[in-house]
Amino acid sequence: MKICVTVKQVPDPNLPMQVDPATHRLVRNPDQSILDPADEYGVETALRLVEEHGGEVVVVSMGPPSAADALRRAMAMGADRAILITDEALAGSDARATARALAAVIRGEQPDLVICAIEATDAYTGMVPGMLAELLDLPQLTFARQVAVEGQTVTVHRDIEGATQVLRAQLPALLTVTASIAEPRYPSFKGVMAAKRKPIDERDLASLGLEAGAVGAAGAAERVVALEEVREEKQGQMVTDDGTGSSVEAIVAFLERIQVV
Amino acid sequence: MTENELHRDLRRAVRELCQRFPDEYWREKDEASAYPEEFVKAMTDASFLAALIPEEYGGLGFGVTEASIILEEVNRSGGNAGACHAQMYTMGTLLRHGSEEQKRTYLPKIATGELRLQAFGVTEPDAGTDTTQIKTTAVRRGDRYVISGQKVFTSRVQHSDLMILLARTTPRDQVKKRSEGLSVFLVDLREAIGNGMEVQPIATMMNHETNAVFFDNLEVPAENLIGEEGQGFRYILDGMNAERILIAAECIGDGYWFIDRSTKYASERVVFGRPIGQNQGVQFPIAQAYVHLRAADLMRYDAAAKFDRGEPCGAEANMAKLLAADASWEAANVAIQTHGGYGFAREYDIERKFRETRLYQVAPISTNLILSYIGQHVLGMPRSF
After folding, report:
1. pLDDT of A245
2. Is A196 on the interface with B (CB under 8 A)?
3. How confident is the model at residue B77, as a pLDDT?
4. Which of A12, A77, A190 has the most B C-beta neighbours within 10 Å, making it the best mutation to test the interface with B?
């Protein structure tokens, strides 16, 4: 079976986020960017399915040339090859434009399964998988915490309030997977070295057959009009005793008000 | 890929792995005198411990330079490579002198970690550096050797499946040179312990599993002899240079760790209204330790490059070990002095690393023995022993 996994290079979530006030976009420093940890679950799921059934794992990303590092990481884990959609005209793409570009590539691959994270760890829109399923006309099974493929069907377990739901669909299909689906493997150094030799197929806009107006800022249906950093503010209230023990009453009154005592 | 790219990738990958094992992990293992099993498994899974095993046997096929970078990074992260470094290089005796059948049987399993070969039985209560004086004997009886005697400071026995053992197969009075008549065996510990081999742990000042080992008519299949009978001393010796270089790298890793911690603490700790690192009495010893460490680091790379080119490197390997062990010990002392009372508090980890790095002045070879080697073999002065 052939599985396409969509992946993204994101600013390292362990580092402080930086915002460009002029463009309202995140500052993406390639040296401080990594394969989205949320995508590692999808890569791991795909690798396990291919280990069980045979086949090929293709990782697909859209981003600047430096996104190749994220694809190499996925290939170090074991993915067979990678496709990077990279073109200046893609800058400023919203979820719809991103889904269009990814769909153009994935359509050409004709995979049995497409696996996505629920959402990316930078913008958190969570809209791309749904749009991608729609553009590719695939059944969409979301929030999978367990997946099995048998013949031409895929079965997933997903948690809903107080119950587990089991969904089944015919292949080809698109899944989004949660962090509880499988513990992602750490690449061995052999894998890291092998990934250097695996191919990354770079695609520009022209090769996708997409018009410039369909993607990038020009093709975006929505526009980020503000992006403000959340400031951490210290909250606290000083109670000063006037020497008569008045602070005790004030503190007890406060604790009663917030229903601690 | 150029060499520099490889080294950069390697450092990055080892650092990433080590980040999963923070100070608290090593502190808890130290306090419980417990083996860092999870760390060793992660190092194995990442194939780092198979660095020196050729690719045809399932390893990474790297040289000592790359292996030294791996061990340096482990110690630089605050960890202790002593728990598993021998899995990397003990197999060298098997690789260089074992039969093709032995290599095909064992090396791929050592590479995957299915078999652990990280115990090395040479030192005895009455024979340390004076190795030819060992009293453990191996006597051929049919298709087996029968081994009797005692070893001491045999490390990681309880976390190994196999052990390389040096024993005398021809009595000293029947050989022309005292270095002859010694042989090397591969002992399967899973069968040996309790069947002619007993292990007694030795408690030490740091978390390093080492043992006294007793052999009472232990039977070892004759096919477990490595190389030719009687040539074992030579086989053991030619693995020593690699070990010296790798241990030097661990010292350098420790040294950088001490310098990093000292620099940070001296820059942040404020006394009398200013950071203590502003005082030259605090600043200069850290700078001095760093200078010595960098110099040792250069000698490590020189020795490793010579080793990897197949050139004689006994002098450089020994000098690298001495310089690095001295530099890490100087850095350790500077770190504990810089931290004052906190240097002795366990939660700062300085005292743990201080205890760990002290070992390198003594093992795997004492500093004095290196000076003897340099005095006699490099400078040509009279032999002292």
Report:
1. 85
2. yes
3. 98
4. A190
